Amino acid sequence: MSHISILREGLERAAWLSVYGSGEQRRLAAEFVSYTPQRAEGAGKEVYEKATNIVKEGKARRSLTLKGFEERVEVNGEKRKVKVIGGEAAKERQNGKTLLRIEITAEVDGVRRECVITYGRYGKLNAAMGYA
Description:
By secondary structure, the protein is α+β, with helices and mostly antiparallel strands. It contains three helices and five strands, in the order H-H-H-E-E-E-E-E. It has helices spanning 8-20, 23-41, 45-60, and strands spanning 70-75, 78-94, 97-108, 111-122, 127-131.
């Protein structure tokens, strides 16, 4: 019998795809996800419970869409109405580094603003940092 090792993140992603994937991708992920706890059961109760919980967490994660998000939030003790009008994320190269750039257009109490946040890895520890 052969064994493979699946990282937690991989199983969570497969569970997410089994709910939010498209077409064949969704079907294949669902088949894989249903098979995994069955195999884990043979390894013992603890392994089965862990696999089942990971699958539940993966399926519970929603696909978030910024556009159209509207909420009242508290800032410095005051309630503000926030409405996201649009946004996108893209990878870009700068000085040999790969960066993630997130652009968001939103209204806060009727005032429209655009915000750009760039994430990259910096320093000797290769720490992920973001700049707005």
